[in-house]
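agent> call fold_tool(seq_1)
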Amino acid sequence: MVQKTPTLKGKTVAITRAKQQAQETAALIEQMGGKPYIIPTLEFKIPSDLSQVKDFIKELQEGKVDYTIFMSVNALKYLFEASKSLGLKNILSKGLEKTTIVAVGPRTAKELENRQFSVKVLPEEYSSEGVAKTLQNLGVLGKTIFIPRARGASPTLKMKLEEMGGKIMEIYVYEQQTPKSANLVSKFIEDLAAGKIDAIVFGSSQSVKNMFQIFTEKIPTAKLREMLKRLTIVAIGPTTAKTLNEMGLKVDVTPKRYTFKEALNALAIYWDS
């Protein structure tokens, strides 16, 4: 029996990723025969205070960091942007060669390898829980672990590693904020009401929270919730799903591997089942 290729033919799928990331997911939707609908709920920027980054680079340079964990491509990108603005890009590169690099998933690992860094640890499960389980097996007691990431990111990983006896430092290399896109919001509400959107994909808890913050300036929360309930709701992982549940929304699809490609495949299979 020939297995059918998952398809999104004839379906419009909304993406809540930041504008600079959404194009990649949009291309995947188009490849699967669907129509992407970009409605960014996130924007990123480098923090004004880069003293944490400067201290981290110094620790790397001195060989004092046992593990450096990259939880996203953005974490890597903005760490290097911050180091460049500090005039420490080359020192950062040399310092990263002295630490064991952990990537949360294959996309992040590929980006690191593109920059000529060797990824020593890649978990089977692409999540905070997956990273924690893998490092638990390797042993983190007394180890110094740095996590470059977004301000306001989930504290789950830090807490789990601290419970194992690790010394954990989170370095905020970028900040997430709500975009100002009043016209896009109004259009999305109109298209939502008109039944022109079939599904919506959330890639993080922050994207969920920001959507409610942005949209409830235009319509009541209860109305937004009811409108979103008409869609097939996709959460990229359990933490995002939990936030959606807390907002009163049922999650229809969560992929086994927490990537956008897997999420879209899972959505196609869900519709076909």
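agent> call fold_tool(seq_2)
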Amino acid sequence: MDRGASAWSGPLLGTAAVIGGLTVLGSGAARGQAAKSFKAALIGCGGRGGGAIRNIIDAGKEVGVGIRVVALADPYPERSRRVRGALKKVGQDVPEAQCFGGFDGYKKVMDTDAEIVLMATPPAFRPAHFEAAVAAGKHVFVEKPVAVDPAGCRRMFAAGELAAKKGLAVLAGTCLRHNQGYAAMRKLVADGAIGTPRAGNVYYCTGRLWFRRRAEGWSDAEYLVRNWVSFAEMSGDHIVEQHVHTIDMFNWVVGAHPVAAAAFGGRHRRQTGNQFDFFSIDYEYPDRVYMQSGSRQINGCWSWGNGIHVVGEKGWANIRGGVQLWDGSKVPAPDLSLHRNMYVQEHIVLLKSLVDGKPINDAKNVTEATLTAIMGRIAAYTGKRVEWRHLVDPGAKSPLYELAYTPGPEAFETGDVKAPPDDVVPVPGKG
């Protein structure tokens, strides 16, 4: 369910304050009344960023709160100008002085009076941007995935815990959790319809996303950003950037993250960058629950979107087939009455959590899903069996604990960026 290439289509609490680490709503909200408005800012003005801003504006209408966009940031001015122009068409006029360029523009957003910050940059930047937002006391919408390496995930875990202590809301762009079909299937499993889950599979097999050849005059930094879906250093590879959606679904359904992964993958037809074309991963979860994960981006092949199949003691659950028990009977899916647009629904959840004074915090869930995908990628790149503890526990004394891609997000601010070579990919079994 990739939204990175989507076009623009289709809050902030002026009286909110952060006092003693707790978010305090205005007097109206404290009496159970809806807040009148929220001030929002966007970091990353590509297609996904423009879509996210429109989604939160639409969600505000559903919740009964106003959304006023007060700042935009993107390294490239033409992108922020495009979003600014689109906002004008819906009655939003962001001051030009509040449209920030450069790779440090996100820091200037943190100095504004925005209360909710939407993050839609390439994934490599998310840990640094998220840390800055939490430090500044901002509520956050952060797109998936939230990192590209184990070091970035650990930064996200720590910042997410700090956000919880400060009473800040963190909504993740794991939109399938807000889709009627997926959410209904998960509820059935959580309610015991198929008994204890024992195994399953998830898949995300499509054609390749866009890519860009390097243009004359582009710096290494510009090439990486403008061709970010081609480099693992920027996107995490497509298993992390795209397949994280369905991996997150399995984690959500079984209520755990895996403890180990073994995998294979490869590259046959991709051009530019250094990513694989396909991954096949066996994940081991606690209590010997196993999940097989398949993801592929190759044009001209049979595609079967994004899906999940879970097998339990009493039967199975499938996003396309509902719940069927071994005796042949079916269990009807509940109507959860979610908004028909899951991208709007996720922002409804964010805004309602603020109005109700119970800020949502998705940081741990989305980071676990991201790290699950990263663990599978590492297993495929290396040909080794990789354990969760290798990535999060320094006591495991694994070299994988120190794995951090370069250039990191801060290197773009200092100008110390060197692009990896094109078409040089990991070789399993070496190194």
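agent> summarizing second result for user.
Residues 1-34 have pLDDT under 50 and may be disordered. The domain at 196-312+369-414 is CATH 3.30.360.10 (Dihydrodipicolinate Reductase; domain 2).
agent> awaiting next instruction.
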